[in-house]
């Protein structure tokens, strides 16, 4: 039994899960928010252990402070007696560029590359690197592994990852589609293959990661073949506050009309668009579903969200020349019975049939189509932390 810690260091937050491997059981998990910022009235530290939630409120100058507190709480609650019990640490890293097509053991060269890739993910990679440096200092003996959000998508063929812009932008500046949510798409495809009872290498799937951020991936023989996110996570589907695909000519036009800067324009597309922008009332799918029948804007936002998902399913179904399974995951994909129904009902003309009772189940891996459906659909709760811990364990061998 080995204790492995999965770490997701965001720009101002630290999410973590301590697992026993290879049992894959969770020992403790938690979230620290408002790192480097000011506190409000709410608790910003949560640790779950032994079925109890411990909450507190505390200011942190930086990630190292937050990690020190997390570890001191591990001792206080008896989660570990000695930090050296934590044998492996897996760090989620957002951008891996073309340098990383799989998870790797961290050394100085890897850390240096993660920092250089900050140009691709300015908010995330510096925070990820900070987290890595802090842990190396505090638990120097643990094996540290970097798990990249983009790595899974490195198998895409060139015709799917290039943009039709001058080729030299790719060779000179790395302009291309990198994708995101790779750890989640990989995890749910592996779990779906187990449910289907066939090797992943023999399967074609379309995986739908529908959360606040959302992306679709076409998986061919177990590998990413195409994905909806692009150079950055702004592309593709309609998301909670992100626009997804837009005609880029709009950018200059809106900037001029609204008299806003490049940065403000990016902020509009990232923070004020998507479900929030269209509905004008909320970025949360639950709020919109509550008023679907009474609020025209909410209905429009949901119809656009569902429509864009169906567009991508159609595109990938053709690209893959058919698929064995459709997989739903993340906040909306795992929890929203009506959204799954709207999506699958739009595929009825392909002979895909929803099993309404199965679609009503919650929190479990389930097939939600009938046995005579032309293509199966599954709900698979994602578990990026477990996928990270699996990679750490494999690299420790
Ligand atoms: P992320 O990790 O991208 O922040 P999550 O995967 O946690 O997001 O998904 C969060 C989103 O899931 C919320 O914004 C909310 O819209 C949606 N969500 C959660 N539960 C439900 C539900 N029961 N019905 C509809 N949407 C839900």
Automatic annotation (TrEMBL):
GO BP term (any one): acetate metabolic process
Pathway: Metabolic intermediate biosynthesis; acetyl-CoA biosynthesis; acetyl-CoA from acetate: step 1/2
Cofactor note as given: Mg(2+). Can also accept Mn(2+).
Record-level GO cellular component terms: cytoplasm
Catalytic reactions on record: acetate + ATP = acetyl phosphate + ADP
Entry binding sites for ATP: 15, 209-213, 284-286, 331-335
Chief location bin: cytoplasm
Binding site for substrate: 92
Its EC number(s): 2.7.2.1
Gene3D superfamilies from the UniProt entry: 3.30.420.40
Top-rank taxon, per record: Bacteria
Entry binding sites for Mg(2+): 8, 384
Cofactor: Mg(2+); Mn(2+)
Site location (Transition state stabilizer): 181, 242
CDD domains tied to this protein: ASKHA_NBD_AcK_PK
Annotated signal sequence range: none
GO molecular function (one): ATP binding
Keywords, sorted A to Z: ATP-binding, Cytoplasm, Kinase, Magnesium, Metal-binding, Nucleotide-binding, Transferase
Annotated InterPro entries: Ac/propionate_kinase, Aliphatic_acid_kin_short-chain, Aliphatic_acid_kinase_CS, ATPase_NBD
Compartments it resides in: Cytoplasm
Functional note: Catalyzes the formation of acetyl phosphate from acetate and ATP. Can also catalyze the reverse reaction.
Assembly information from the UniProt record: Homodimer.
Family designation: Belongs to the acetokinase family.
NCBIfam families per UniProt: ackA
Descriptive protein name: Acetate kinase
Encoding gene per record: ackA
